[in-house]
Write a structure and sequence with these properties.
With about 425 residues, the chain is α/β, with parallel strands linked by helices. About 35% of the residues lie in helices and about 15% in strands. Strands 4-12-11-10-7-5-6 form a seven-stranded mixed beta sheet, sandwiched between helices. A four-stranded mixed beta sheet has the order 1-2-3-15. A four-stranded antiparallel beta sheet has the order 13-14-17-16, covered by helices on one side. A hairpin with a 5-residue loop joins β8 and β9. It is globular, with a radius of gyration of 21 Å. Bound molecules: pyridoxal-5'-phosphate. Pyridoxal-5'-phosphate binds next to α4. The site of pyridoxal-5'-phosphate has 16 residues, from α4.
């Protein structure tokens, strides 16, 4: 008989009743080191006093009023994001997929409003993950996720990541824009080079296209700057954010330049819950931590996330050197890895993930046999070294028979 909770996930048989910092506790008192952060979402870890009190205080006043009225918490959060980024204006929604849908709508609408109604197609990249709505499944372009859901929504073209010739060949008279994750998460922590991001900007300018970055996973401090594209010094037209922006409270955002945002006039886009007082109180509390001096990096001044990220990256590289039979290499970003790191495994990453669980360490699989190491951004150096020690012990646990069995097996897809 089907479970009453629809079985769309293969869940580990673990239920957490509370958390504290980077630790999660089960009902029976077992303690787990959380280096998955609810898939790169619990940016402040668990039970962060500032986030908890901001949410509790707002819940005790007013949670929801609708967007028919002014929402001061949303106005403040938008103003702070504008101040801290390329953007001139922000739209709040509830999830990553919804932010990406809005990003595509904005690109199309801006093209239409400036005399190019025919420009509707978006160029996306192999290995992308943009979410589970019908249009974002099509933008993702992964046959496995599309299977059984009918005709893919029209309007998305795919090219290999990092290939400018293929990108230029794909641009046609009906192309509206380009949508890219500066670091692909779900397909295995594949970072685009700074040069590629800069070349995309140049190509978009040359052909009158809009450049949109999906920073749902790699944004909101994960790479050590507020947004990953900042490392490349590239100014996008639109950026989507979600996951870490609410520290675990559902919140998404679309950040855009005025040239793009001004075409979303009243009535053209909307949401019931998006940007409500409670979600934006959470978002403001997260920003308080992220924007505090020394937490994120500024040019010439590495911040907490970058510094701790380097310690983690170096320790993982040592582990790879110690266990070349288990691990192939560490994947991160060209300039700085921050806390979005991939560990490419020689055998299906799921076996390592299970072994890590036995060592009371939570990590997340990604495509291409990669373990994603994506802890809360508040993690400290000792906790990083502890996690790598547990990964080392996990590698000991993966028995030769599992390895032998896995040799011919197809790696499982990661489920986001
Ligand atoms: N975009 C990226 C890069 C993601 O990693 C995800 C989720 O993992 C999404 C979009 C979809 O976000 P959500 O699950 O909040 O809809």
């Amino acid at each position: 008989m089907i479970a009453s909770l629809m079985p769309t996930y293969n869940r580990a048989d673990l239920a957490f009743e509370r958390g504290d910092g980077v630790w999660l506790y089960t009902v029976d008192g077992r303690r787990f080191l959380d280096f998955g952060a609810g898939i790169a979402t619990s940016s402040l870890g668990h039970n962060h006093p500032h986030l908890v009190s901001a949410i509790a205080e707002q819940a005790g006043r007013v949670m929801h009023v609708s967007n028919l009225y002014r929402v001061p918490q949303a106005e403040r959060l938008a103003a702070r994001l504008v101040e801290a980024t390329f953007a001139d204006s922000v739209f709040f929604c509830n999830s990553g997929a919804e932010a990406n849908e809005g990003m595509v709508k904005m690109m199309r609408r801006a093209q239409a409003a400036t005399g190019h109604e025919e420009r509707t197609r978006i160029i996306c990249f192999d290995g992308a993950f943009h979410g589970r709505t019908l249009a974002m499944l099509s933008a993702t372009g992964n046959a496995k996720y599309l299977s059984g859901f009918g005709e893919p929504a029209p309007g998305f073209d795919h090219v290999p990541l990092g290939n400018m010739n293929a990108l230029r060949d794909a641009i046609g008279p009906t192309t509206a824009g380009i949508m890219l994750e500066p670091i692909q998460g779900e397909s295995g922590v594949n970072a685009s080079s700074i040069r590629f991001l800069q070349e995309l900007r140049a190509a978009a300018d040359e052909f009158g296209l809009l450049l949109g970055f999906d920073e749902v996973q790699c944004g909101m401090g994960r790479t050590g700057r507020l947004f990953a594209h900042e490392w490349a010094d590239v100014r996008p037209d639109v950026v989507s954010a979600a996951k870490g922006i609410g520290g675990g409270f559902p919140l998404g955002a679309i950040l855009a330049t005025e040239a793009v945002a001004r075409h979303l006039t009243p009535g053209s886009h909307g949401t019931t819950f998006g940007g409500n007082p409670l979600a934006c109180a959470a978002g403001n509390a997260v920003l308080d931590v992220l924007l505090a001096p020394g937490f994120l990096s500024t040019p010439g001044h590495p911040g907490h996330v970058e510094i701790v990220g380097r310690v983690l990256f170096d320790a993982l590289e040592q582990l790879v050197r110690a266990r070349p039979d288990m691990f192939e290499r560490v994947r991160g970003h060209e300039t700085n890895n921050g806390l979005m790191i991939g560990l490419k495994c020689r055998h299906p990453a799921a076996a390592l993930q299970d072994a890590a669980l036995q060592e009371h360490l939570l990590v997340v699989t990604a495509g291409d046999n990669v373990l994603r190491i994506i802890p809360p951004l508040v993690v400290n150096e000792d906790e990083c070294l502890e996690a790598v020690a547990r990964l080392g012990r996990a590698a000991e646990r993966v028995s030769p028979s599992v390895v032998a069995q896995s040799m011919g097996a197809q790696p499982e897809m990661a489920v986001e």
